[in-house]
Amino acid sequence: MDVSKFSGIFPAFYACYDEDGEVSADRTGRLAGYLLKKGVQGLYVGGSSGECIYQSVEERKKTLENVMKAVKGRLVVIAHVACNNTRDSQELAAHAQDLGVDAIAAIPPIYFHLPEHAIARYWNDISAAAPATPFMIYNIPQLAGTALTMPLFRVMLQNPMVVGVKNSSMAAQDIQMFRAEAGEGHVIFNGPDEQFISGRAMGAAGGIGGTYGVMPELFLRMNELLEKGEIAQARDVQDAINRVIYKMCEAHGNLYAVIKEILRINENLDIGGVRSPLPELIPEDGVIVREAAEMIREATAGL
Hints:
Elements: E1 8-11, H1 25-38, E2 42-45, H2 57-71, E3 76-80, H3 86-99, E4 103-106, H4 116-129, E5 135-139, H5 141-144, H6 150-156, E6 162-167, H7 173-182, E7 187-190, H8 196-201, E8 206-209, H9 216-228, H10 231-248, H11 255-267, H12 286-301
Parallel strand pairs: 1-8, 2-3, 3-4, 4-5, 5-6, 6-7, 7-8
Helix pairs in contact: 1-2, 2-3, 3-4, 9-10, 10-12, 11-12
């Protein structure tokens, strides 16, 4: 399988809401257009940054439809389709294939701690619903409650449509382990934004991250420097990125509420708030948000 297109910077797409908190087709298209203009290589739609567990199947379809309409094949699109049951996940997988996405992805089922053979069946059933579309495993054990083990990965590699892993475990060496096990024709993406350099050094072909969309220039520049072998300069960009992330995490409101407010400040891009039970910003967060927005502007200006 040719995996060359699965490389570079893939922002995890944010949920876009109107003033009533409903998924907005217009704002979804605007965000996709903004990221396209920034020069990213692809988008990861419907994952954690897209608030997927708080949205209905129809809302997730609407988001993906409007992303695909906006990018018109000019970006590689990976659609996260996992729901906490197989039937809805298969519906989203088939829908994503019909729209022509480049790959689908899925976390394991959450809440119940299923045996690995049940997780494998869940993923393979999802893949079977989109039989012509590559399938990517999303490993995020700190949120899903289940880790992708090597025995489970070996079982999944028997599925010829498994293209690789979006690895968001905090252990960077997992990337090397998955890459070595999968071999040629597969790809591993780095997940944790704060360790992009480490993930790439371990062999990740690129990154998928929730803060990429609010500062894409910094991630694009860092990746460019790494490809040139300019490690010290790349590390300086990673340091600047991490300072921004740490600042954003100081807020009372959810990280994505902070990010969306920064997009309003820096890009004049309004994509709404976050969906309950994610906490909205409080007045005291204003100073933190403005400081983080300024930090992004200064770091970007220094590229």
